[in-house]
Amino acid sequence: MKKNLSYLLAIVGAFTLYSCETEIKTNAEYKDITVIYGLLNPNESNHYIKITKAFLGEGNANDLANNSANFNYADGELDVRIDEYNANSTFVRSFSLSRTVNEIPKDDGVFSNTDNVLYKFVEPSLKKDYSYKLNIVNKTLGKEITSETKIANDPSLTNLNQITKLKLVNSSGSYLNHDFNIRTGANSGKVKVNLIFSYANHFTDTAIQPEVKTVKISLGEQKTTTTEGGDILVFTLNGANFFSALTNSISASVPNLNYRRINNCVLEVISAGVDLATYISVNEPSTSITQNKPEFTNLTNALGVFSSRNIKNIYTASSGFNATNPSTENLNGFDNDGQTNFDNDTKEKILTMGLNFCDPFNTSTYAPRCVDVISNWNTFNP
Fold first, then answer.
1. How far is Cα 245 from Cα 240, in angstroms, rounded to an integer?
2. What is residue 363's predicted lDDT score, i.e. its pLDDT?
3. Is the pLDDT assigned to residue 58 strictly greater than 70?
4. pLDDT digits (tens, 9 = 90+) for 322-335
5. What superfamily would CATH give domain 34-151?
6. pTM for the complete prediction?
7. I need a surface site. Which of 132, 224, 309, 374 has the fewest CB within 10 A?
8. CB 326 within 8 A of CB 341
9. If 0-12 CB within 10 Å is exposed, 13-18 middle and 19+ buried, where does residue 71 land?
């Protein structure tokens, strides 16, 4: 498969001036250029491929971009499928992708968001040792586009105890660092790690439902040294940065706020497929004085990237904890027993930050008073 293709990201008009002509041709002859972005995630059931086309026309480019018909293919114009092959390269089955409109809202930007067209198939169990081949046929032009990817396998912690009790401050108040040793999965080119701190706002008006909120703290990203998996990458959570993130992200004053409850935290590990990692690296800002950058696509007859992305949440859960989506987690993190995956000194620090964690006024039977928790760890943390 040809990986490095030279291409134009924009079509530049070529024009010639003639001595007896006043009209200038500013646009070259139009050529169909397909742009594709598709990332298969083995931990999801709904899979989407974004397929658009470059456009060319007279007038203001922003006005042209505001018309979705200029960059979306018409309904029925494309035949899109993904073929699954096992580890022995034997064909297993095909998925026919359907054209969806506005099933997922598009973010605001230069391009029109009135019609967000995505091509979708549903499969809850993509095989991590299989290959998936994309095949697109433009039935109007007779053009075929192909690509292939393997699925980035699950990463893991070398020891789950690293997420059981996070100790980010000691009893004397000094901040500590905490390392997470991530073992990479096969077919991964880059790994990014976030810590997601979850908490719930409780309100004085009991008619208002508790509001679950999260704070995401980046621990950075690293490239893998092998695509076979088994790399050990160390990501460090800085204690001072953790508490600063809470202070900067959580408002001390919220209307009708009674108290906040600490929930368990989640380690979010995002593994980029090999081609996705290459695509990201190629498109990073250039550090060269010449600003010359290589160009990359892993699609034939198209631009973009078709690869995989594995989003894995690693956690130690209390009963009912929803680690798949921490924002919808229940409230069993810091309950009457005070149990979370922070150690006692770290919890005590969180409770004394002036952010109304736990129940400072003892108005609820479901959360302990902060002073009781701090002074009676043996009671609330047996």
1. 9
2. 56
3. no
4. 455 555 444 344 44
5. Immunoglobulins (2.60.40.10)
6. 0.80
7. 374
8. no
9. middle
